[in-house]
Design goal:
Length: 211
């Protein structure tokens, strides 16, 4: 059984996807420090504190951007731009109940949009998967044998579904954080994820019900 198969009937598709992707290293496994709010405040004037935020979020931001732009070099450039904008905008940042993650991922999402406005139309998964294996820090999680099916999947997702799937599984964000980024309620985010994963299940050839 591949990492994309549903493991047991009766459990949610979302739970199985998180288990499968987690087993392949897709999640960063980030553990947040309870004092992050203090680090954020310190980072407004202290470069060392900003470096701590950089270390906490770089991999997750890069992973999200990589799976949006499809090229390691572009992902590095856009990720660097995100942290430059974060540093510039941090003095105006105000703490919210959802924490720092929604703020920086809104910057990341907007940076990706700007990237495509400047450069070219939205890349397909064919372009993403043409990158060398070692260029993707996620490794082979997508699975070479699934390239054709996954290309069809991504092209079939709506923009919101694609964002929710990547923010959930590439950026390892909570539903609350994703809702804050997309300015939607959590129920809407869960429905977008559910529908996106349902398309994934269909494309990957698992015709079983159970959602």
């Amino acid at each position: 059984m591949s990492s994309y198969d549903v493991v047991a009937d009766g459990d949610s598709c979302e739970e199985h996807m998180e288990e499968a992707l987690g087993a392949n290293g897709f999640f960063a496994g980030q553990v947040f420090d309870v004092a992050e709010a203090e680090i954020v405040e310190a980072a407004k004037t202290d470069p060392i504190a900003f470096g701590e935020l950089y270390e906490r979020y770089y991999v997750r931001v890069y992973r999200y951007i990589y799976h949006r732009v499809g090229h390691a070099s572009d992902a590095e450039d856009v990720t660097g731009l995100v942290f430059m904008k974060a540093l510039e905008g941090l003095p105006n940042y105000r703490q919210r109940g959802n924490g720092f993650a929604p703020w920086i991922f809104r910057i990341a999402r907007n940076a990706v949009i700007d990237h495509y406005r400047r450069r070219r139309p939205q890349a397909t998964l064919d372009v993403l998967l043409s990158a060398p294996d070692d260029a993707d820090p996620v490794g082979d999680v997508l699975g070479k044998e699934r390239r054709t099916e996954l290309t069809a999947l991504v092209e079939g997702l709506s923009a919101d579904q694609r964002d929710v799937v990547l923010l959930r599984y590439a950026a390892d964000l909570s539903f609350t954080e994703i809702a804050a980024i997309l300015q939607k309620n959590e129920a809407a985010v869960r429905m977008l994820l559910h529908r996106g994963l349902k398309k994934l299940k269909v494309v990957l050839g698992d015709g079983r019900a159970g959602f």
